[in-house]
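ugh ok fine here u go
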Amino acid sequence: MTSTRRQLVVLIERGTIPWEEVARAVRLSGLHPSGRDWLIFLDRLLLWLGCLALAFAVLFFIAYNWSGMGRWLRFGLVEAALVLAVAVYWLMESRRVMAQVALTAATLLLGVLLALFGQVYQTGADPWQLFCVWAALMLPWVLVARFAVLWVLWLALLNLTILLYYRTWGGAFGVLFGSEASALWVVFLLDSAALALWELGSRRWSWLSVDWARRLVALGSGVPITLLLMMAIVDGHEATLPAWLAYPLWLAAIYGVYRYWRPDLCMLAGGCLSAIVVTLLFMGRHLLWQAEAGGFLVLFLAALGLGAAAVFWLKRVHAEMQT
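structure:
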C-alpha cells in the first residue's frame, strides 16, 4: 500500500523525474490542495459550523429567555426548528452533504426537545433515561442516513446511557464484578462488538470506511479494558481475573487485525500506548512501595525504553506498509 507521496519520492531519488520538473510533478500529483479544494473545504466547514451554531442557538435562546417564554412557545420554537431541519433533509436528499448536515441538526434538536420536555414537566426521570430515549428515537434516522457521524453519536449516547445507569443503580451484575467495574465491562463489550461489526460492514458499505470513526469506536473499546486491567493491578484480588484474561486477548486482536488484515498504524499506536500504561502501572505497583526513591528512576528509564521501542517498531511497520 504505497502512497502517492512515497511513489513520488522514490521517482525523484532514482532520478526518473529531473529536478527542474519536480515542482510540476508535485502539482500534477495532487499532493497539495488546489484553490478549488480549499473552497470546497471552507464551504463544508462553514456549513457544519453553521449547523451546530443554529442547533445550539435554539437551546441557549430558550434557556436565556426561560422566564419570559411560556411552555407552548418553548415547545413551538424547538419543534418548528426540528420540522424545518427534517424538511431540509427531505428536499436536499439529492445533495448528500446538505442532507447529512440537516439530519445532524435534527438529531441534536431532538435531544433539545427531550431535555425541554423533562424540564418543563419535571418528570423526575434519571439522566440515563434521557440519553436512552434519545438514542431510541434517533435510531430510524441513523439507519436511513447511512452517515458515520450519526452512528458515532448514537453509539456515544448508548455509552452515556450505560455509564449513567450504573452510576444510578449500581448495575445488575454487581454481584459478579462490582458496580464500578460492571459499567466498564458493558461499555467494553458494546464498543468491541460495534468495532467488529463496523470493520465487517466497511468491506461492503463504503460510507463506513471512515478512519476517524473507526478509531473513535476503537478508543471506546480500548479505554475501558485498559482501565479494568489498571483496576485489577491496583486491587489485586481474584475478582479481577476476567480483566487479566480479556486484556491480552484484546491486545492480540488489535495486533492481528490491524497489523495483517487491515493495516492501521494509528490502531497499533493505541495498542502500544495501552500496553505501556499498563506495564508502567504494574511496575509502579511493585516497585514504588518497595524500592522507594529508586523506583522512580526505574520507572523513568522504563518509560523511556518502552516509548523508544514502540516508536522504533511503529516506524518499521510504517516502512513495511509503504512498500
